[in-house]
Amino acid sequence: MYNCGLLKFRKITSNSNKEFGALTPIEFLNEIPFDVKRLYYIYDVNSEQIRGQHSHKKLHQVLICLNGSVDVKLINHFGEKVYTLNDSSEGLYVGPDNWREMYNFKEGTVLLVLASEKYDEDDYIRDFDTFLEFNEKKYGRK
Ligand code: TYD
Fold first, then answer.
1. What is the pLDDT of residues 127-140, one digit of tens each?
2. What's the mean pLDDT in 42-71?
3. What separation in Å is there between the alpha carbon of 22 and the centre of ligand 1?
4. What is the pTM of this model?
5. Residues contacting ligand 1 via CB (< 6 Å)
6. 39-59 burial code (b ≥16 CB/10 A, e <16)
7. How many angstroms is it from 121 CA to the middle of ligand 1?
């Protein structure tokens, strides 16, 4: 898929003590493909709710499901794909020009988002037809 993909982070556990748990470190400079300027987290979402339903013109993001499970559907000019995020040692990189929808939030899900820019409503495209037109102008007719 164009301009998106899964990132695998380390998961540090103890070989001798399974009950010790796990730790995932993320070195922003080495492991995140942009300078992180903002983070936010999405939580307390009802399982019937669909979130997202927009694209960004410039923003780069990495989505990390810290707890629970959520499906993320990405649509761009070159294809579409659904990612199930349920492993806190992986992150979904989502570049510009990807329409995203997040749904099937399991109870207790916490979705952490790292973002390359401060919040700017002008960077959003919230209408699907406008998104299709924007991408067609940028990437050509399908
Ligand atoms: P939005 O990005 O539409 O959420 P989602 O894609 O998860 O459905 O943002 C929801 C609201 O929160 C919207 O009114 C904008 C506001 N918001 C901020 O004020 N700052 C932020 O950093 C973000 C991400 C959203």
1. 999 999 999 999 99
2. 98
3. 30
4. 0.97
5. 38, 40, 42, 51-52, 119
6. eeebeebeeeeeebebbbeeb
7. 9
